[in-house]
């Protein structure tokens, strides 16, 4: 990294580290006066008429001293090839700019492209995932990635880990939003996964390099997971989980919220089921998400659920009579009773491979 960029990063860190200057004031100053280098140190006279910061803060910003532990931070940036974007940069995610309390800057390892943020989608959930949660995360995540979405999650154990893996195994891009500096991999067991994400996406954090894992960092970073995403799928988690906090941020940010329904007797399903009661969109297949964005999955990519012998027989008759077949006609062709056929059709409908149409007609979805 060249000296110009290093000095730019140093100025931003000093600005945000100054007493009484939080995210909103830092952003407001930058939007009014430009890069922090242009109004700090010897150029601090530009702050003279700024009324929303104190004289004490102005005095601090006028000093030429570097931010605390600057040499340590600079060494980490060099060692891990850490990159930087500020809210003034074109590459900064436009979705993130419009949330409440956007980060003034982001550090990242890997690559960021402007087009990555046109279709970013978050998948989050519990660290203690069930086999059902893992299976559905893998299935939905891979199909979304193959359909052009960049998968966003938090690198935690469980659902987050599988979300990232689902994209990587499809040779697609994924972002991990960190609750630490991007040089600090947490949990440590995910260091190999983090390296793979750097190769095909990015580790992203608002925290200054060197920042270690602290409990309160993770709720803060969740607003970024939802903030960079057009929608958010909650797979599993209790009502008090971090996944539900991400959903709350998504709701506040006017993002689409999706939830995977689960067994009402399992604690992991408590959060998603609660969100569904509040109006979250139910997801039983990737199609439920794709249709929300007017996208259609190629038939070759769809996985037809396993069918029983009778289900398979009736489904094939429905296929042979596309685009649709009358219920009465289906009774004649199958020899089933009304009750038996109704039961089988309900099963096929729940498996999302047929759909009931007006006029008592049945249409195949595959």
Describe this structure in words.
The protein is α/β, with parallel strands linked by helices and 366 residues long. 42% of the residues lie in helices and 13% in strands. It has helices at 3-17, 23-33, 55-62, 70-79, 94-97, 131-146, 159-168, 191-199, 217-227, 242-252, 270-278, 286-290, 309-320, 327-334, 338-350, and strands at 83-86, 105-110, 120-124, 150-153, 174-177, 201-205, 231-234, 256-259, 281-282, 325-326, 354-357, 361-364. The strands form 2 sheets. Strands 1-2-6-5-4-3-7-8-9 form a 9-stranded mixed beta sheet, sandwiched between helices. The longest helix is centred in the middle third of the chain and has 16 residues, at 131-146.
Key phrases:
15 helices; alpha/beta; Arc Repressor Mutant, subunit A; 9-stranded mixed β-sheet; 3-stranded antiparallel β-sheet; Rossmann fold
Uncertain regions: pLDDT < 50 for 5+ in a row? Answer: none
Mean pLDDT comes to 91
Proportion of residues in helical segments: 40-55%
Question: Number of DSSP helices?
Answer: 15
List how many beta strands DSSP finds. 12
Gyration radius from CA atoms, angstroms: 25 Å
CATH class term of the largest domain: Alpha Beta
Helix-strand makeup class: alpha/beta
Give the name of the CATH architecture of the largest domain: 3-Layer(aba) Sandwich
CATH fold call of the largest domain: Rossmann fold
Give the H and E element order: HHHHEHEEHEHEHEHEHEHEHHEHHEE
How would a crystallographer describe the biggest sheet?
9 strands, mixed
Number of structural units classed as domains: 3
- Distance between the first and last residues' Cα: 52 Å
List the strand order in the largest sheet: 1-2-6-5-4-3-7-8-9
The coarse silhouette is elongated
Fraction in beta strands = 5-15%
């Amino acid at each position: 990294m060249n000296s110009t960029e290093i000095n730019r990063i140093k100025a931003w860190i000093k600005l945000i580290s100054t007493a009484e200057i939080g995210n909103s004031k830092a952003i407001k100053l930058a939007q009014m006066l430009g890069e922090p280098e242009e109004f700090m140190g010897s150029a601090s006279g530009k702050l003279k008429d700024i009324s929303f910061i104190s004289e004490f803060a102005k005095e601090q910003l006028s000093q030429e001293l570097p931010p605390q532990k600057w040499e340590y931070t600079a060494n980490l940036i060099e060692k891990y090839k850490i990159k930087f974007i500020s809210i003034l940069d074109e590459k900064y995610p436009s979705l993130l700019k419009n949330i409440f309390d956007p980060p003034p800057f982001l550090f990242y390892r890997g690559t960021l492209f402007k087009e990555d943020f046109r279709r970013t989608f978050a998948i989050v959930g519990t660290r203690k995932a069930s086999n059902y949660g893992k299976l559905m995360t893998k299935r939905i995540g891979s199909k979304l990635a193959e359909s052009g979405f960049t998968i966003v999650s938090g690198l935690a154990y469980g659902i987050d880990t599988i979300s990232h893996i689902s994209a990587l195994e499809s040779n697609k891009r994924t972002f991990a939003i960190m609750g630490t500096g991007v040089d600090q991999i947490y949990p440590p067991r995910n260091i190999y996964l983090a390296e793979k994400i750097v190769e095909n996406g990015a580790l992203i954090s608002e925290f200054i390099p060197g920042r270690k894992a602290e409990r309160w960092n993770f709720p803060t970073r969740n607003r970024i997971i939802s903030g960079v995403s057009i929608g958010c799928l909650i797979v599993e988690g209790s009502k008090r989980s971090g996944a539900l906090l991400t959903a709350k941020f998504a709701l506040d940010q006017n993002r689409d919220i999706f939830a995977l329904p689960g067994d009402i007797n399992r604690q992991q399903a408590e959060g998603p089921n609660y969100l569904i009661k509040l109006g979250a969109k139910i997801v039983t297949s990737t199609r439920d998400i794709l249709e929300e964005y007017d996208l259609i999955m190629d038939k070759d990519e769809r996985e037809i659920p396993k069918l029983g012998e009778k289900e398979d027989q009736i489904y094939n008759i429905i296929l042979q009579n596309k685009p649709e077949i009358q219920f009465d006609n289906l009774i004649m062709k199958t020899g089933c009773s009304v009750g038996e056929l109704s039961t089988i059709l309900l099963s096929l409908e729940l498996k999302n491979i047929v759909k009931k149409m007006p006029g008592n007609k049945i249409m195949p979805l595959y």
